[in-house]
Design goal:
627 residues; 8 strands
């Protein structure tokens, strides 16, 4: 038995559908229906097995205001509760109702939402940079143009590499750094000079008058009156084995009043050769050339120190260059932000007094003056960095420049930076490590010297001479008699000396060994420090790059917000409070956009400085050789 006719049943079904749609509880959206049915006291329809009848519970506590609020809901949201089965209304023939298609749409929405929830869980390794959406900042292109209203003839343009090499050519500090190794290198030649042969000569005249205490001295006269003129020339030499040699020619003229002095006016000639060779202490090439080796190692240490100071100078040039670039970008951004704020103010001035209070325009004026102050500070910083570069580079062409335009712009690509290669480079080229290594080599030579000095002194001595004598001042005959009269004379033997306790030598050797141990520990600490600093700067560069990519996304988002608020403000007309609130939001968004651009430019410049600092810490930024 049917309680309703077919037409009446259709009317009831349509009425139910209208009520459900009015409350945002479409049977096509089962999640919203399930959630809202509990809120309003509705129970989901449950088809019965008896015929085509559908029974619904009546709404509880629904007022007209709540009804209006439900009508303002744009789209039902998808709840995180388990999905409720869609309501099936039997024998509905309306063409607008297509549950299968809507259910597929629900599944697609749910899949998208599930992907969005899982996206923040993606972890990025520390060593890999993230990639931001393509975004080309406008300020690098504007930064290579004149922005300070300078005369064209007083505008200079230079790239980073050009300024570095000009500083190597003109900077007084660089010239001073390069002189220091040359000074130390002269010490090597000083020590080598110890093995240069030495010529010598001597001429002494003596005229003596001494009392005689023995008649056998003079044979009668009471005083001995004697004239003696001694002359000698020769050459001395020292070899790298410790041997000392001397070849000399002596010629003496002598006369006195003794009756026994025959012949008178004697000329005595003597050609001598002496040689002394250490056999224990002081023997060996290592001991005798140790001063040369130590001077060479000190030169290597000085070159390493100069290399570090040279890299310090180059790093100062790089830092000043990129800071100049940054402050030029900040000036451009301040001017651009000021221009945007002025345009906003000009567009809203006609609305002042109608739907915009004049006091709100004062807020725009305040932001304009704030950006003008930022531009003034940027100009001061630009002039300061130009002065710093002028001092560091000292190139003549920079003296006439009012505006220096850097042509090298920050790179937006992340280069490959193998950490192991940079650490290996640091161990080879860092100045502090090379200086300690040179000190260790010098200390090891000094230890060998101390070991040699613990030995006893045992020297081989050999002397030989030829001698001739003539009277009546016959110089030539006396010199000739050395070779054709008589035979050579010689002396051969050894000398020995040895301290009993050798405390001086033992203490010296112990001191050298302790010095080597200290230097080895210093070397190990320098290696650890280099590894730490290289790892830190590489990680810092990677972090700065990732920060710059995040800054790109932040700048793009902030720019989109500004554009949206600009459109909203220009198209919005209403009460002054609402318009003023929108204007305040726009000004705040403009401030955030300028801050985002400042942050992005800063991160770009810091990334370039970070790349240079990696080479600085690895010792490969700039090197000089001992040659």
């Amino acid at each position: 038995m049917r309680f309703l006719s077919r037409n009446a049943e259709k009317q009831w079904v349509l009425a139910i559908l209208l009520v459900l749609l009015a409350f945002g509880l479409s049977p096509l959206n089962p999640q919203a229906f399930a959630q809202s049915s509990q809120t309003l006291g509705l129970e989901p329809p449950n088809p019965t097995s008896t015929g085509d009848r559908v029974s619904l519970a009546q709404p509880v506590g629904v007022s007209s205001e709540e009804f209006e609020n439900f009508l303002k809901i744009p789209t039902p949201y998808v709840s995180d509760r388990p999905a409720t089965k869609p309501v099936r209304v039997p024998q509905i023939q309306e063409p607008q109702v297509q549950p299968p298609q809507v259910q597929e749409t629900e599944v697609q929405v749910a899949q998208v939402q599930e992907t969005e929830v899982q996206q923040p869980q993606v972890m990025i390794p520390l060593g890999l940079p993230i990639s931001a959406p393509h975004f080309a900042p406008w300020w690098p292109e504007k930064g290579i143009e004149s922005i300070m209203a300078s005369p064209p003839q007083q505008v200079c343009r230079a790239d980073l590499e050009q300024l570095i090499w000009q500083s190597m050519q003109y900077s007084p500090r660089v010239k001073s750094i390069l002189i220091l190794p040359k000074i130390q290198r002269t010490e090597v030649d000083v020590q080598r000079g110890e093995f240069d042969p030495r010529r010598f000569g001597q001429s002494l005249y003596n005229d003596n008058s001494d009392p005689v205490g023995n008649t056998l001295t003079t044979g009668g006269p009471s005083r001995l009156n004697e004239q003696f003129w001694d002359n000698s020339i020769g050459i001395r030499d020292r070899n790298t084995l410790g041997g000392k040699s001397e070849l000399s020619q002596q010629i003496g003229a002598k006369d006195n009043n003794s009756l026994f002095f025959k012949p008178n006016n004697q000329i005595d000639s003597r050609l001598s050769l002496n040689y002394t060779q250490p056999l224990l202490r002081g023997a060996g090439r290592i001991y005798n050339t140790s001063s040369i080796a130590i001077a060479g190692f000190k030169t290597k240490g000085t070159v390493a120190t100069a290399n570090r100071e040279l890299q310090d100078h180059a790093m100062e040039v790089i830092t000043a260059y990129w800071e100049l670039t940054l402050h030029r970008y900040l000036l451009l951004q301040a001017n651009n932000g000021q221009a945007r704020l002025i345009r906003i103010k000009e567009q809203l001035q006609n609305r002042s007094g109608r739907d915009l209070l004049p006091s709100y325009l004062k807020r725009a004026d305040a932001e304009i003056f704030n950006q003008r102050a930022q531009a003034d500070r940027a100009i001061a910083d630009i002039l300061g960095r130009q002065a710093t570069l002028r001092r560091l580079v000292n190139a003549p062409e920079l003296d006439q420049c009012i505006e220096l335009i850097p042509l090298t712009i920050p790179s937006d690509e992340y280069p490959e930076i193998p950490l192991e290669d940079e650490i290996a480079s640091a161990l080879l080229y860092r100045g502090d490590i090379a200086a300690i290594r040179a000190s260790i080599e010098s200390a090891m030579v000094q230890r060998q010297v101390a070991q040699n000095e613990r030995k006893a002194i045992l020297d081989l001595v050999a002397n030989s001479y030829l001698r001739g004598l003539e009277g009546n001042n016959e110089l030539s005959r006396s010199w000739q008699d050395q070779f054709d009269t008589g035979r050579p004379s010689f002396t051969f033997g050894a000398t020995y000396q040895d301290p009993i306790y050798r405390r001086t030598a033992k203490a010296s050797l112990l001191g050298r060994e302790l010095e080597i141990q200290k230097l080895l520990q210093d070397h190990a600490d320098a290696i650890l420090k280099a590894q730490e600093q290289v790892t830190t700067v590489v990680a810092s560069a990677q972090g700065t790059y990732r920060s710059s990519q995040s800054a790109i996304e932040g700048t793009m988002a902030q720019q989109a917000e500004v554009e949206e608020l600009q459109v909203k403000l220009l198209d919005f007309f209403g009460d002054s409070v609402a318009v003023g609130l929108t204007l305040n939001n726009l000004l705040d968004a403009e401030k955030r956009l300028i801050a985002a651009e400042n942050n992005l430019a800063t991160q770009q410049v810091q990334f370039m400085i970070g790349l240079a600092r990696i080479k600085y810490e690895s010792g490969s930024l700039m090197t000089i050789s001992a040659d």
